[in-house]
Amino acid sequence: MADHSEKHVTEDDKATPAKMRKLESGDAAEARDNFAGFKLIKVLNENTRNKCIFVHGSFEGSDDDAVVLMEKTPFDKQSISAMLTSTTDLKQVMQNDIYGVYTSSPPPDLNGINTTIIYPATDRHIMKYSAQQIYLINETAEEYQEITLPFIESQPFSLQWVYNILDKKAESDRIIFEDEDTDTGFILLPDMKWDEKLTENLYIIGICHKRGIRSLRDLGREHLPLLNNIAKKGKEAICTKYGVKENQLRVYLHYQPSYYHLHVHFTHVNFDAPGMNIGKAHLLLDVMENIEMQSDYYPKKTFTFTAKEKDPLYLKYKAAGKM
Ligand code: G7M
């Protein structure tokens, strides 16, 4: 199996020299205090049900693109009494008999919005977060070899953020658990989508130390000790730190993943997490059972997965006359 540990710089990453410099450094970008000088270019997508919005913009004095992901967070039962005090301003919208409707403005510290800034963002980030028609692709083992694998090898999303975590260059203060074994070890930490405030929307990822396992497609019997280890120790560590029991955790892998370095998703069973749908999520226990029954189950399987209309992989399948 090819080793993918070296850093890939995609064509999109190469868009400007500034982007190259920042992406090659491997350092985390500087923290920002506010959105001063931010110019909104376009709302890429919004979802009223999930109360999130994704926008494309830029920061003053920079030619680089930025993608900002904002999501209103669930209510915290612990802080609701602090919210129902004189510190929360009420503006009346209407009153009818005993029914009063208001817009309330709680103090900022009780009213945070989970915000991710991707900067500098590549064209692929802008595409990834744009509203698009979705299609299903059936990928046979042969099509994986002929279309998907060459695509992954030619332009994966940069794995720099993954290597920063594994090398303790970023997010090391957020590590929940680590097993350092080079074959079966992994790092467990909050997914960037989770603000760690409430366990109701708990979202944690386990990233394996071993490099070169791109996805589910690469898994066989030799990986069972790694998968068992992530399943067992990951769940134990989450239970110890957050009190969420094993039978309240959904543990799965994505196919296709966005990032081709093996990682496992842990989410709270009550949470309707993005990317949990059929055509994307594969339960880790099912994966292990399938491999136990047949070691080359995943290399041989026909996968059905969802892809967006501007996704370069979808375009490859279309160009090959498969769509
Ligand atoms: O779809 P895929 O299985 O590749 O999911 C990758 C996961 O990694 C997503 O749930 C992302 O939210 C998460 N993620 C992506 N980035 C860039 C980061 C990051 O820099 N830090 C953390 N903690 N999670 C990330």
From TrEMBL:
Database matches in PANTHER family: HISTIDINE TRIAD HIT PROTEIN MEMBER, M7GPPPX DIPHOSPHATASE
Role description: Decapping scavenger enzyme that catalyzes the cleavage of a residual cap structure following the degradation of mRNAs by the 3'->5' exosome-mediated mRNA decay pathway.
Reactions performed catalytically: a 5'-end (N(7)-methyl 5'-triphosphoguanosine)-ribonucleoside in mRNA + H2O = N(7)-methyl-GMP + a 5'-end diphospho-ribonucleoside in mRNA + 2 H(+)
Top-level taxon of origin: Eukaryota
Keywords: Hydrolase, mRNA processing, Nucleus
Enzyme class: hydrolase
Gene3D superfamilies: HIT-like (3.30.428.10), Scavenger mRNA decapping enzyme, N-terminal domain (3.30.200.40)
Keyword hit for Disulfide bond: no
Encoding gene (name): LOC100367637
Subcellular location: Nucleus
Pfam families to which the protein is assigned, alphabetical: DcpS (PF05652), DcpS_C (PF11969)
Protein name: m7GpppX diphosphatase
Annotated EC: 3.6.1.59
